[in-house]
Amino acid sequence: MKNDVFWTRIIYVVSIVISLVVAFLILGPRPEGIEGALDVSILPLVNATLNSLTTILLLYGYYLIINKRIETHRNVMLTCFGTSTLFLVSYVVYHWFKSGPKLYTGDFKIFYYIILFSHIILAVIIIPLALFTLYRGWNNQIDLHRNIAKITLPIWLYVSVTGVIIYLMLYL
Predict the structure, then answer these.
(1) Per-residue pLDDT for the chain (172 aa), expressed as one digit of tens each?
(2) CA-based nearest residue to 55, from 165, 172, 171
(3) Using CA atoms, how far apart are residues 36 and 107, in angstroms rounded to an integer?
(4) pTM of full prediction above 0.90
(5) In CA terms, which of 3, 15, 73, 90 is 20 to 30 Å from 39?
(6) What is the CATH number of the domain that holds 149?
(7) Which residues of 17-53 are buried (b: 16+ CB within 10 A; e: fewer)?
C-alpha cells in the first residue's frame, strides 16, 4: 500500500509536468533561431501514424483480453504504451522546432474546434489514466486494473482517433 502511495504521487507529478511542457511548447516563446533549425515537416504524418497504430493496438488489446489471452494482451498494451510515448516525444520535438499551433483553414470550423477542444481536454486526462492502468496491470492488481481500464480504453481510443482526424483536417 505504501508503494501505491509513492507511485500515485509519481504518476500525478509526471502527468502534470508532461501537460505543462506540452502547453509551453505550443504556446510559449522559443529561443532565437530555434524555429526551423531542424526540418520537422514529416513529424505530423509520423504522429498521425503513431496515433493510428495506437488505435489498432488498443482495439487488438481489448480483443485479446476479452478472449482471455492475458500474456499477449500485456505485450500488446505495453507496445501500445510505447507507440503513445513515441508520439509524445515526436510531438514535443515538432513543437520545439515549430512555434505555435497550425491554424485550421477549412470549411468545418465548428466541427474542427469541437474535436480539437475535446481532444486536448481528454489528452490531458488520459496521461494519468494510462499510467494508472499500466501500473495496476503491471502489479497484478487485476480488479483495480480492470476497473480503471473500462474508463481508460474509450478515452484513449477517442484521443488517438481524434488525433488522426485533426491531422487529416489540418494537413490534407
Answers:
(1) 788 999 999 999 999 999 999 999 888 888 888 888 999 999 999 999 999 999 999 999 999 999 999 999 999 999 999 999 999 999 999 988 986 678 999 999 999 999 999 999 999 999 999 999 999 999 999 999 999 999 999 999 999 999 999 999 999 9
(2) 165
(3) 29
(4) yes
(5) 15
(6) 1.20.120
(7) ebbeebeebbeeeeeeeeeeeeebeebbebbbbbbbb
Listed in sequence order, the residues at least 6 apart from 124 whose beta carbon sits closer than 8 Å to its beta carbon are: 15, 19
What is residue 30's DSSP assignment?
-
- Total domains in the chain come to 1
Question: 34: which 3 cell numbers?
Answer: 530555434
Residue 51's contacts (CB-CB under 8 Å, 6 or more residues apart) are 87, 160, 161, 163, 164, 167
The whole-angstrom separation of Cα 9 and Cα 76 is 26
Domain that holds residue 89: 2-171
Q: What phi and psi values does residue 33 have, to the nearest 5 degrees?
A: 80, 0
Pull the grid cell for residue 95. Answer: 513543437
51 and 80 in contact (C-beta within 8 Å)?
Answer: no
